[in-house]
Amino acid sequence: MTLPGRRLLVVEDELMMQRLLANELEALGFDVTCADSVVEAKKQVKRCDPDIALIDIGLKGGLSGLHFGHYLAIQHPDIAQIYLSAVDLSTGTVGEGMGLPVGAGFVSKHSIGETKLLVEVINQVVRGKHVVGDASVAAPGALESLGKKGRRVMELVASGFSNQYIAEQLGVTQKTVEYYVDQGYRALGVGQSVNRNSRVEAALRYQQLSGSGDE
To answer: Whole-structure pTM over 0.70, yes or no?
Structure first.
């Protein structure tokens, strides 16, 4: 299954890899736009309004692909994200305390020649954007997958602080805090329900996993 006509943004600073990806994906019917930096990628998001972003983590120039991905997750959560890297991301965390955004896919550059694998990952991530579920358990390595800042936000949530207070303490916007809280809910397996307080449940699960509730 492919997604012909889907607008796809390739963010890759190695020209040969960028051309390879663009040619392969265009041959499959994707409408492809390319960028070689985070700055250029943000411009292309405004210009072409992509459905999917294929992002190299190791971008040069100071800002990594993860910086761009977390920007997208906050400002354009409807854009599906798939990451590329030559590094094994089995822990879900890559440098600078940043984790992969929840729901993002990953493909190793070592297997990038397997076009079917790349397209299958794209399909799975895109389908996942439309799945609304009520997870019942925390994902493996849940705390690690949140990254340094995400864990700090959930630590403050577990301590009973409001989003406004957390934003003031961390020097970020409330919208950013809301994004990390939402990430925390998903990673900890907390779904939305009219019958329970999701924030309290997330706090309890965080305490259980981190051991912060043990005296």
So the answer is: no
